[in-house]
């Protein structure tokens, strides 16, 4: 329960504080990455110089004292009021149902220099006779502070089956009195002159324009916080009763503990405030930090195969999860098979996996000795089919391809997963990540979360990164490519796996393929274009027929602007409004028509697709299944029931070689993901059970060898709608961690103040 509330709090703070952005030459504040506990915690960080709140002091010809005996004039005084190198940020909260108070204490430093002219005289015979004059320089040094208090009062409401989060906002700024020294030591009338100078400096610092600057800070924050009067979040929860939602809201009164680490926050907070000059995308860094903590809340404990280390006395077993330093270890109890092991903490994982600028960048492996490790991502229990009870696999990374591009050298990373590093005769499986062909982080998280399923069945899993269309992920040298370049990357990845057979202990069996979404498309491409080298392929919600998708859109069957249209346009690098469906690139990525010409020449497939997929229409998998009978338009999956109240799952035999299509009737895209048993795209509890069963069947199917050809059959396979015994089947509390996680696993993180509809 604590992890669930913790994850919710992270999302809540993310929703609330990512929108604070003050642009009027004042400061930019995003408070989401703070060190938080149920008690007040002050977290110091070097953000002063990044805040940019400055006030110039510039005074001339100000009379300090008039008189015959003595007069003085402040000839000039120039200086600045600047933030110091440290600021103090305090976040107060104890429960999610009560106001969250944020207090920024910004120390300011006054540094100024000036010059004073003074005259001395004597009054005689009714006149003032000057007998001396001189001048002296002065310096002023002082400290003060500005405090900014932001109070958020979260308000949760339930209307029908919709959970609504709004927020009331209050902002207050205050400038504390300054304490400063004026150095006029050694001048005549030192004490009186210092008092006069203090008065002038106070007048300068309390000028109307400084007060207006503070008011602008308040106004700007309130303006950016426009959602305070509008809905911040509206989440439609199909299949979740109003009573359950209300029970969840009541849990918000429970104390929570947010496990943000100081190490992680120091790295990302500095990047976010642009103190780290190497951070080109501070928003990306901020998002990475938040995602890391969400992942941390979902991590489960898993056993690992033992490692060994040589001591003076003997070869002793050691748990890999307890290793804290890189070094030479052994995979056998005789300490005869050495390997290099490097521990990976959460911060390092986030930097290299979730940070969109770094993920998949093989250049980061340069000058680093290859090593095996335990990736925190593999321990994420975010799949519909839990990995609980399965050993955590080891992983390692290599560069499998280098390409010189106009933007530099692109080096592509290959991640390899094995349950036991020393294992031999493993079946090779290439797992291709999704992400609309343009994102990496979102897709690789899905692959990591499934890795234990595959390695536990005797696979060695290979997860290659490929170049991407657009500029949303990875280094610049690996961006803005075409579809042809992407498929060339995955083809080269297949070659690399075959040539590294001995290094990773692979068997002689043909390669298996799997992929999610865009990765499933690439897996299908390999199945079609490298068919003789592939044994069988598992596809999750695959876009496999670009031509038919565009044809359906042109005919008005997908609506005016379906979600996938812009994705297809970027993938093809074509304007879909003027597109020619006979284009060779479109034909090359419309697989059913190719397969239908000679189905027996291609490896069997196992497809799992949601009947209510809002991104990739079910028709894509329907036509692919039919193509294995020789006609995409007519075959075993020609008629699919769309009413999930009549049939939750439908299973079709696509050919006589064990190819199958499993339709989870009410499931949406990313149906294999599920957070804390609630808000799963697979649908309601019964639908989740059936989807889980299909996934487990798919994992097992992938491990089998192709059977001999069976007698021809066009009939739908027998359905099993029984309950599955799995930890994910139980009830649980609602958790909107789902929103952020799903955004990475599908189309990436966009605006968090947008209305979300059912996954």
The whole-angstrom Rg is 32 Å
Q: How can the largest sheet be summarized? A: 10 strands, mixed
Strand content: 25-35%
User: What is the averaged pLDDT score?
Assistant: 75
- Global morphology: elongated
Characteristics:
disordered N terminus, disordered C terminus, elongated, alpha+beta, 759 residues, 24 strands, 18 helices, ten-stranded mixed β-sheet
What this model shows, in words?
With 759 residues, this protein is α+β, with helices and mostly antiparallel strands. Among the domains are: 203 residues, no CATH class; 190 residues, no CATH class. Helices cover 27% and strands 26% of the residues. It is built from 18 helices and 24 strands. Strands 1, 2, 3, 4, 5, 6, 7, 8, 9 and 24 form a ten-stranded mixed beta sheet that branches. A ten-stranded mixed beta sheet has the order 14-15-16-18-17-19-20-21-23-22, sandwiched between helices. β5 and β6 form a beta hairpin. α6 packs antiparallel against α7. The two termini are 22 Å apart.
């Amino acid at each position: 329960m604590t992890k669930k509330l913790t994850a919710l709090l992270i999302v809540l703070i993310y929703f609330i504080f990512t929108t604070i952005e003050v642009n009027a030459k004042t400061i930019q504040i995003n408070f989401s990455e703070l060190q938080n506990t149920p008690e007040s915690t002050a977290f110091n960080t070097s953000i002063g110089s990044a805040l940019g709140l400055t006030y110039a002091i510039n005074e001339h010809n100000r009379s300090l004292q008039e008189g015959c005996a003595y007069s003085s004039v402040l000839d000039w005084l120039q200086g600045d009021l600047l933030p110091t190198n440290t600021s103090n940020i305090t976040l107060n909260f104890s429960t999610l149902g009560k106001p969250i108070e944020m207090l920024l204490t910004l120390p300011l430093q006054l540094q100024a220099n000036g010059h004073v002219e003074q005259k001395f005289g004597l009054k005689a015979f009714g006149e003032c006779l000057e007998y001396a004059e001189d001048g002296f320089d002065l310096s002023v040094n002082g400290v003060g502070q500005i405090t900014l208090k932001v109070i958020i009062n979260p308000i949760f409401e339930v209307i029908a089956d919709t959970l609504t989060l709004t927020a009331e906002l209050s902002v207050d700024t205050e400038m504390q009195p300054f304490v400063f020294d004026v150095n006029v030591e050694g001048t005549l009338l030192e004490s009186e002159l210092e008092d006069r100078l203090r008065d002038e400096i106070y007048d300068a610092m309390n000028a109307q324009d400084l007060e207006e600057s503070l008011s602008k800070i308040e106004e700007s924050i309130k303006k950016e916080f426009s959602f305070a009067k509008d809905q911040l979040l509206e989440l439609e929860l199909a299949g979740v009763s109003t009573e359950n939602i209300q029970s969840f809201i009541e849990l918000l009164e429970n104390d929570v503990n947010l496990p943000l680490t100081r190490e992680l926050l120091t790295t990302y907070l500095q990047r976010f405030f642009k103190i780290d000059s190497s951070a080109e995308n501070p928003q990306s860094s901020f998002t990475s930090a938040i995602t890391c903590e969400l992942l941390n809340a979902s991590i489960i404990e898993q056993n690992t195969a033992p490692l060994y280390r040589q001591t003076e006395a003997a070869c002793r077993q050691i748990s890999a999860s307890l290793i804290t330093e890189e070094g030479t270890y052994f995979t056998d109890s005789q300490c005869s098979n050495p390997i290099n092991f490097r521990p990976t903490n959460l911060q390092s994982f986030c930097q290299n996996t979730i940070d969109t600028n770094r993920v998949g960048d093989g250049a980061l492996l340069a000058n680093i000795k290859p090593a095996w490790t335990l990736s925190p991502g593999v321990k994420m229990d975010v799949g519909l089919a839990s990995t609980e009870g399965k050993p955590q696999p080891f992983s390692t990374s290599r560069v499998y391809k280098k390409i010189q591009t106009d933007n530099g050298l692109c080096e592509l990373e290959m991640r390899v997963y094995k349950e036991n590093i020393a294992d031999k005769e493993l079946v090779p499986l290439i797992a291709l990540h999704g992400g609309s062909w343009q994102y990496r982080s979102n897709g690789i998280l899905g692959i990591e979360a499934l890795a234990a399923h595959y390695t536990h069945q005797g696979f060695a899993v290979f997860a290659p990164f490929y170049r991407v269309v657009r500029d949303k992920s990875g280094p610049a040298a690996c961006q803005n490519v075409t579809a042809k370049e992407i498929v060339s990357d995955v083809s080269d990845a297949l070659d690399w796996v075959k040539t590294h057979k001995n290094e990773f202990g692979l068997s002689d069996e043909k390669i298996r393929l799997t992929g999610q979404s865009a990765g499933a498309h690439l897996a299908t491409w390999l199945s079609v274009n490298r068919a003789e080298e592939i044994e069988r392929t598992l596809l999750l919600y695959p876009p496999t027929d670009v031509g038919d998708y565009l044809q359906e859109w042109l005919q008005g069957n997908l609506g005016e602007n379906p979600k996938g249209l812009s994705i297809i346009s970027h993938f093809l690098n074509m304007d879909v409004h003027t597109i020619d469906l006979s284009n060779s690139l479109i034909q090359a990525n419309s697989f059913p028509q190719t397969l239908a010409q000679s189905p027996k020449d291609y490896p069997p497939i196992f497809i799992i697709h949601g009947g209510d997929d809002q991104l990739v229409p079910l028709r894509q998998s329907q036509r692919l299944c039919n193509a294995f009978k020789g006609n995409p338009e007519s075959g075993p999956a020609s008629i699919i029931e769309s009413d999930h109240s009549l049939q939750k799952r439908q299973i079709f035999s696509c050919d006589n070689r064990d190819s199958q299509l499993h339709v989870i009737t009410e499931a949406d895209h990313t149906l294999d993901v599920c957070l804390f048993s609630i808000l799963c795209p697979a649908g309601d509890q019964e639908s989740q059970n059936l989807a889980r069963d299909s996934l487990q069947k798919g994992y097992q199917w992938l491990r089998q060898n192709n059977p001999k050809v069976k007698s021809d059959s066009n009939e739908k396979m027998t359905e099993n709608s029984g309950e599955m015994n799995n930890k994910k089947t139980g009830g649980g509390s609602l958790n909107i961690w789902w929103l952020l996680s799903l955004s990475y696993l599908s189309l990436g993180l966009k605006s968090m103040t947008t209305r979300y509809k059912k996954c």
